[in-house]
Amino acid sequence: AEGATLSKALKLVYNKRNVCIPYSEDSFEVSLMKLGMSSRATNALLRARLRTLGDVVEFCKTQKITEIVNLGRNSGIEVFEAILNYCWDHMSQKERAAFLIDTVERNGDNIREGIA
After folding, report:
1. What is the DSSP string of the chain?
2. pTM (predicted TM-score)
3. pLDDT string in tens for the chain (116-residue length)
């Protein structure tokens, strides 16, 4: 779907810059079970007492997602992509355009390097 394509495109900047995840206050209460992640990633988050998208966002404000036990780099990327895809799918066209413009402005040099 569209979100999966977006996350593949943003892989160019994962290791070089921070990519903001677009979310609204409404999405804070979304259960992690609705994000379609692997059992490994979901169980690691649940064991860390993170139950909602908002819990993960708040956790990431103070700690790295990979600090969660049994959640390595690949699982951390999976969590990031699942949240990004969910939020993307629940945005209006106007919100999507603003997000893409912001991402390109923040990462323009990295995107150009990846294309060249």
Report:
1. -HHHHHHHHHGGGTTTS--PPP--GGGGG-BGGGG---HHHHHHHHHTT--BHHHHHHHHHHS-GGGSTT--HHHHHHHHHHHHHHHHHTS-HHHHHHHHHHHHHHHHHHHHHHH-
2. 0.69
3. 455 555 555 555 445 445 566 666 778 899 999 999 999 999 999 999 999 998 998 898 888 888 999 898 888 889 988 988 888 888 888 888 888 887 777 766 655 555 55
